[in-house]
Amino acid sequence: MKFNTKTIHGNQQHDPSTGAVMPPIYQTSTYAQSSPGQHKGYEYSRSGNPTRTALENAIASLEGGEFGLAFASGLAAIDAVVKLLKPGDEVIATNDLYGGTYRLFTQVFEKYQIKFHFVNLSDASIVKKYLNKNTKLIWIETPTNPMLHIIDIKAVIDQIGNKDILVAVDNTFATPYLQQPLLMGADIVMHSATKYLGGHSDVVMGVLAVHDKDLADKLYFIQNASGAVCGPMDSFLVLRGIKTLHVRMQRHVENATQIAHYLEKHPKIDKVYWPGLASHPNHDIAQKQMKGFGGMLSFQIKGNSKDDAVKVLENLTIFTLAESLGGVESLCGHPASMTHASIPKVEREKSGITDSLIRLSVGIEDVTDLIKDLETAIGLV
Length: 381
Hints:
alpha/beta, seven-stranded mixed β-sheet, about 35% helix
């Protein structure tokens, strides 16, 4: 089954009791049992809910995995992965990553004696420098947020050899439409389903996909024991969003392509970060492991002025100044004071997140309107 068909039918079935084409919203907390411990597969909705199960099956199908798990947020999904570890374990993580992930790693899990190494994984060979007997997890984000660095997933996995180390990939920016890390050898794929999978800025959710049953069982135990699960209505909304993932991503990529090339030629723009540009340092890797280059891009105004960046952001009218990304509407943001404010300034700037950096989530509006909006706002600086 091809991907575009999987978004509609992958691991999905009509409701057996009514024939409903879309899975019903099972808005229930508990389920009747015929005898103690005898039920129809569900007993309490923290442990499992039919609407959530339908979503989890769909996620597994899209990522080419066997098992899916859905959580109350992307960070809840990441939290479950790190809970696979124990005190003394070490993690090698992308240095340019979502600020909430950095905050979770450093302010929550470091106090439980889990050590994190934040390194530039754009050169996969650096992994060997940090590998030791305590390394248990490599956390990859590619493309990265917000610098759009590309990490060669297969090359990172090759550095590990036969060591018992999990490789997890945050695939939020790419989506399974553009990139499928499990098929490249990763153990875990994570998404903030709030973003492109949901696609309409109306739900908060995180998902995981895995191949291995033992790993899935461990994650399911954590999911159930910790209880950070999503509700049936949210599951329904993301299932609905997935049905149009392929057509939305096609337009996101088309629009971002034109905007990236427009900005690259603009006399007031210093740098544009988008993996589809030939000037991108890992453009060749993106071509190799991605079907397209995504709808996210970042850029800097010449002069490196925060005031100029803020002026642009305040004067955009079709691009909405807001947190998050991946919806049908175009969004703009200032990573240093918004999505990545929890990362200390000195650490932010090491990975290129300066006060003049602007991040765009390019929506599916008419691209001529989006370019005109950018032209007007940039023209004011």
